[in-house]
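Quick one - first record:
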Amino acid sequence: MIQDIEKSKLNNEYQNADPTENSVALCYKDGKILCSIINGVVSFPNCSSADLKEYVYLFSVDENSFFLCSVEPFSDFEFHNIRELRECKNKKEIYAGVTGYHLFCWYSKNKFCPACGSKAFHSKNERALVCSCGNVIYPRIDIAVIVGVINKGKILLTRYSKAHSAYRKPALVAGFAEIGETIEQTVEREVFEETSLKVKNITYCKSQPWGFTGGMLFGFFCEVDGSADVKIDENELSEAFWASPDEIDFDDNGVSLTEYMIGLFKSNKGAVI
């Protein structure tokens, strides 16, 4: 998945640091990222080669530190839709670009204090924005579930409605946690809301940070409890259908938790609970 970057490691501890010769510039604008994509390989400009107007330290991966910057397109670097990174090959750079996007969205939406309306400033001690009124704003992480619903050796695959999402590949039931509910209750509610199915034997699979939407995804498998007749929420889904492992014509490209879970069901011949 997107966070699996082999021997490399993300160090997201905040530092009050300045760019060095190994620093990488991450620049975002209107859902796009400044980068070069050649033959499926993405690269970002080096801070030393860019005309930096503003910058803030984000994190490091191995020896490279990454900075959120304001940079205009130059040389081979131009703005690409952030979701184009899903189709690139070099996972370490994908992970950095998407994680940086999560922080960019948070920074850009919290320029002013929600408590008093005054301008918020970067903390010099931690990953936070602070205000003269004493309010401290920390990065927001939205909690969501991805659910593989199983019934008699088949898994429920869905397709989003065009109005809900541009993602057209087979997906699983998914949704955000609500205030006051456990993550298991989120699974039960989202499955019922989207498909009218009741479920049991909820089993944790794996988690994934998902910077595209600023979320943390929790993957679960579960079994149908009672009727397997599906009635979809047409506001979110265009279809939902049961598929056996042999009926899944789908390859995991190593990016998303959804694809990982579908691939796990397929390779294990349905034995996931």
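second record:
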Amino acid sequence: MSDVQRSEPQQEPPGTLEAMRQTPDHGEDSYRGAGRLTGKAAIVTGGDSGIGRAVAIAFAREGADVLISYLSEHDDARDTAEHVEKAGRRAVLLDGDVAEPAVCQMVVDRAVEEFGRLDVLVNNAAYQMTHESVEEVTDDEWQHTFDVNITAMFRLVRAALPHLGEGASIINTSSINFDMPRPTLLPYATTKGAIANFTAGLAQMLGVRGIRVNGVAPGPIWTPLIPSTMPPDQVEKFGRNTPLGRAGQPKEVAPAYVLLASDEASYISGAIIPVTGGKPIL
């Protein structure tokens, strides 16, 4: 993959699939469902591309209807929705910045309106930028990173709770950065640590209601976020420092979300599942 990554064009954040030379594999041609989420209704934020897209496709092929929340990547989101519908499930698209409180409420309200229920909330939307020094990070960027990556999770959970019953599942996307923070991703890595703590605390708080809360901690996964937020030299080497020696594909992360969303994970709560290509998380 290194030769392709070397020639991968730089993009403006958050990036699009159309502009990528090496298109990530979201499981479009490979994921096979087994009815593990039959009858469930789910929200996936950041569902237009990357991990969110792979999760939306996998959920649909497992039998779930999916609301795909995304920022502004309309073409990518419509393509994701087509895959959901080809699986015989309903896809609802909703664009908007989850950094805005009203958008978080709108996401939940629309899902309940369209599906009549809510069983799974996947908090996946994220923002990151690369910086070589603290001085490069502005107050606005620091605040925006927190608003998108962690504050939106709190707002979405708060809005969703009146509609989540016993057996429901909340899944938060953390990162290997919560345990091994990359200094050039300081604001992002800091939020990922907060997400791990939020997940652990919320799991304890909601256990009495029978609602499970877990997280997934991906390592280096090849998505549009990489060539749009990292300099070319880092893109070229992306994922090489893992024991498996490569970046992961979104389709390789999605099964962790399927497990946590399914009834098979009925006694798993407060966990963070690492999908890191062999890098340990302690």
